[in-house]
Design goal:
Elements lengths: L1 H24 L10 H4 L3 E3 L6 H12 L8 E3 L3 H13 L6 E5 L3 H4 L2 E3 L11 E7 L3 H4 L1 H9 L4 H12 L4 H11 L1 H8 L9 E6 L3 H16 L3 E6 L2 H9 L5 E7 L4 H6 L5 E17 L14
Parallel strand pairs: 1-2, 6-7
Antiparallel strand pairs: 3-9, 4-9, 5-8, 5-9
Helix pairs in contact: 8-9, 8-11, 9-11
The structure holds 1,1-dimethyl-prolinium.
Length: about 300
């Protein structure tokens, strides 16, 4: 009798527990007929606090008056943001994220940028190569290669996708180089090989910069350099170039995203110009949020 009771009880628990668990994790699906704010708790899901896009988004919140309805920007990391996005999309839930391109989030998920009529994010960005003062005379070979380094969004995306699929970044970089040898040859054409000379690149460990920094590092290695790459926060990265602690970085999103540091350290670095054009930064939502197409719509 006791035994039977226990079986019935555990059976009941098995029925009830998943339902309870389900209740706590399941958020509501996006409802186009409801105001958006309450559906997402007036929250924009962001990334690491130091990122330029976080500062720009704070400005955007003010510019669009979203602060008046208590919209807030949640700090996390790219990995946490994309995992939250992944879950939201799986369940057709509403979500507003800080988005940028090139990034695999736009390849992997059906998301769209929100229009930005007040131009808080600027229309498009380029990514510049920044080197320390004196690099040109100390390491003319590396300087030339860094100066010539440029590629397209699609190139960067293909490296990012491989890394996102689990490939080691240096392997993904080597693979891209192998498949784009003609382009790489243009960067190194006529440049003398060196013999183990040390060079240090600093970068912020964003997916895009992991891709570009590894590609440049591998090209420099093939040219005889002994390359160190070191990831750090954005401010120390700029400081490392300004103080000659590092030689170069290829991570300067401009004119907006890295503006603060670009201005702060002006005169203490050489700007070799864009290595990639047509990048973009803004707010993004899943495409099924059909009536949210502009940042203005967040107030609706
Ligand atoms: N990002 C990607 C960076 C630059 C590269 C847009 C997240 C940022 O500073 O916001």
């Amino acid at each position: 009798m006791k035994f039977k009771k226990a079986i019935i009880l555990s059976g009941l628990l098995l029925l009830i527990l998943p339902t309870l668990a389900g209740c706590t994790t399941t958020l509501k699906k996006y409802d186009a007929n409801e105001k958006l704010g309450p559906q997402v708790n007036y929250t924009i899901t962001g990334i690491d606090a130091g990122a330029g896009i976080m500062a720009t988004t704070q400005t955007a919140i003010q510019k669009y008056g979203l602060n008046k309805s208590n919209w807030q920007l949640q700090t996390s990391s790219t990995a946490a943001m994309t995992s939250t996005l992944d879950k939201a999309i799986e369940n057709k839930q509403p979500i507003v994220i800080t988005g940028w391109q090139p990034h695999w989030m736009f390849t992997k998920y059906p998301i769209k940028f929100l229009k930005d009529p007040k131009n808080a994010y600027g229309s498009s960005e380029h990514i510049n190569t920044i080197v320390r003062k004196g690099l040109k005379s100390d390491m003319p070979e590396a300087y030339t290669i860094l100066d010539r380094f440029h590629w397209k969004s699609t190139d960067m995306s293909s490296v990012m996708l491989d890394v996102n699929a689990g490939m080691d970044p240096s392997k993904a970089a080597k693979k891209w180089i192998k498949n784009n040898q003609t382009q790489v040859n243009q960067w190194t054409d006529g440049v003398k090989k060196v013999n183990g000379k040390k060079i240090k690149l600093t970068y912020v460990a964003w997916d895009s910069e992991i891709a570009s920094t590894n590609v440049v590092a591998e090209v420099l290695k093939e040219h005889g350099y002994s390359v160190t790459i070191q990831s750090m926060e954005m401010q120390p990265m700029w400081a490392s170039i300004a103080t000659n602690a590092a030689d170069a970085q290829v991570c300067a999103w401009l004119p907006n995203t890295s503006k603060q540091f670009y201005d702060d350290y002006k005169g203490k670095y050489d700007d070799l110009g864009p290595n990639l054009e047509g990048a973009k930064v803004g707010l993004a939502v899943p495409k099924y949020m059909t009536n949210i197409n502009s940042i203005e719509d967040l107030k609706k």
